[in-house]
Amino acid sequence: MNTTPRPKNKNILISGAGVAGPALAYWLHRHGFTPTVVESAPGVRDGGYAVDFRGEAHLTVLDRMGILADIRRERTNMGAMTYVNEAGKKISSMPADVFSGDLEILRGDLARILYERTGKDVEYVFDDSITSITEDAKGVQVTFERSAPRRFDLVVGADGLHSNVRALAFGPESRFVKGMGLYCAIFTTANHLGLDHTGQLYNTPGRLVSVYSARKNTEAKAMFYFGSPSLSYDRRDVEQQQRILAEAFAGIGWETPRLLDAMRDARDFYFDSISQVHLDRWSQGRSVLLGDAACCASPLSGMGTGLAMIGAYVLAGELAAAGGDHRVGFARYEEAMREYAKGCQKSADGVGDWMVPESRLKAWIVNQNYKLLPYVPWKGLIAKGIRKTANAITLKDYER
Ligand SMILES: Cc1cc2nc3c(=O)[nH]c(=O)nc-3n(C[C@H](O)[C@H](O)[C@H](O)COP(=O)(O)OP(=O)(O)OC[C@H]3O[C@@H](n4cnc5c(N)ncnc54)[C@H](O)[C@@H]3O)c2cc1C
Question: For the chain, which domains are there?
Answer without folding.
Answer: 11-352+384-390 (3.50.50.60)
